[in-house]
Amino acid sequence: MEIxxxxxxxxxxxxxxxxxxxxEELLLQLKLNPEAVIVTRKDxxxxxxxxxxxxxxxxxxxxxxxx
Amino acid sequence: MKCxxxxxxxxxxxxxxxxxxxxxxxxxxxxxxxxxxxxxxLEPNDKICVACSGGKDSQTVLYLIKKYLQTHHQDTKNLKxxxxxxxxxxxxxxxxxxxxxxxxxxxxxxxILEAKKELKYTLDQALKSLKKKNQLEKPCHICGVWRRYxxxxxxxxxxxxxxxxxxxxxxxxxxxIMNIFKANTSLSAxxxxxxxxxxxxxxxxxxxxxxFCPEKExxxxxLIKKFPVKFIECPYAEEGYRAAxxxxxxxxxxxxxxxxxxxxxxxxxxxxxxxEKEIKTNTKPLRECKICHEPANQEVCHACxxxxxxxxx
Lengths: 67, 313
Prior knowledge:
The complex is a heterodimer of chains A (67) and B (313). Chain A has 67 residues and is mainly beta.
């Protein structure tokens, strides 16, 4: 499936080809530590168990500040 | 995943189970308020200065200190906010804009101390000048010295008796591990929910209400509360030693839940011993800087030493 992701830290949006089911698997594919990010979909905060759908638009927020 | 308390949709899995938005807010605020009470971070007559950068930690701690005072029927007139403008073009002006908006919404008085006015240089100017003199100081080192110097000076000028900072559990766990890895035990004596090893009249005691709050929880709280926090990276930020420790701790935490809390719990058990040893063996007790009369652990404070190099012709 195709997932659209906006990365807050890089201020960029990318389309990702994703073969898994859950957010946990997507973060693993993106090599992102769940401790270091918060993921939202339509203003809803997602847990790692969340099952993703084709064409989902996710926003990945950085937990760490930029200072 | 459902909240274990009410079966609503969970937003985070805590050590004791998944929780929804409302139960997370309740849990987070209770944790901060209990930290304030257990460690006696604030006393009824304290004049409080919250050191704010405009980021998620400082906005969260400011909001919760105000809420704590209100819920405990204490006067919020004694609450002031202090920010430092080091003079980093394209960075600090943005975070200070967020902070000004936040302070206006929260109806708290904001004081901004500018490095340019207080120390005659912006950080940008100082770094440029040091580069010309072939003095390769790390930007974060100078920034840290200036910030600590100006925050203490500003809090004292505001006649505050407590200085609140937004340090969170991750910041503290990183500092503890860094000090162990680098064998800087004496530096660890100054950590803990109340910074410093003893009172000194020129030094405003620093307290950390977010001491037990992981950084992810603070970011989540700021997000739910819709605080004006934008991600903006400092142009001088570098992925140094602390970042390596942060990533290591995050990797451990992801595999073994409770690692960071474990670091802090173990540290708090031995902190009284480290403090006792430091008081007995400290060869550099706080004194007055002979140039600026601010606290120093040598004849001349670090800020004046940097200025000395900058003023050399």
